[in-house]
Design goal:
Largest sheet: 4 strands, antiparallel
CATH class of the largest domain: Alpha Beta
Low-confidence stretches: none
Radius of gyration: 20 Å
Order of helices and strands: HHHEHEEHE
Helix content: 25-40%
CATH superfamily of the largest domain: Lrp/AsnC effector binding domain/regulation of amino acid metabolism (RAM) domain
Number of strands: 4
Strand order of the largest sheet: 2-3-1-4
Length: 153
């Protein structure tokens, strides 16, 4: 369903990206509208698939997940059966926060959040026991400088 996004929709989306727990009254006040039109626009954006899952951002370090690894994977396997096994293995692992298939020398990049290097090794050993990969390079993030899920509306 194609939906046209106007400036008011963009303001509403920006407000929701900043804090989705705001009340309709707060959002309406922020965007210069009233509650009912804002609710109708949010409903339209949900139905169109522009607004997806509602969730909460947790502090990984406060919960003991102090290590963030970016894992670069090269594979010599490109058939459908291998890809299905690989994707299933990634989806089954909660440590994998993001996974991307790339163009270029590296086939996949993963963002993996774990407690420490030992926990990463356990993740790595489990992954390679399920699917064969040609080369794996793990890069430990020393400092998170910026992290956001907000789109530049």
């Amino acid at each position: 369903m194609a939906v046209r996004i106007d400036e008011m929709d963009r303001k509403i989306l920006a407000a929701l990206q900043r804090d989705a727990s705001q009340s309709l009254d707060e959002i309406a006040g922020e965007v210069g509208s009233s509650k009912t039109p804002v609710w109708n626009r949010i409903k339209k954006l949900r139905e169109a698939g522009i607004i997806g899952q509602h969730t909460v951002m947790l502090d990984a370090e406060a919960l003991g997940f102090e290590a963030c690894f970016f894992v670069l994977i090269r594979t010599s396997e490109h058939e459908a059966a291998w890809q299905q096994r690989f994707l299933a293995a990634l989806k089954a692992r909660p440590e994998v926060q993001e996974a991307h298939r790339l163009a270029g020398d590296i086939d996949y990049i993963l963002k993996v959040r774990v407690a420490n290097a030992r926990a990463y090794d356990a993740f790595y050993q489990a992954l390679i026991s399920e699917v064969r990969v040609h080369n794996v390079t793990a890069l430990l993030s020393m400092e998170e400088i910026k992290s956001t899920v907000a789109l530049p509306l």
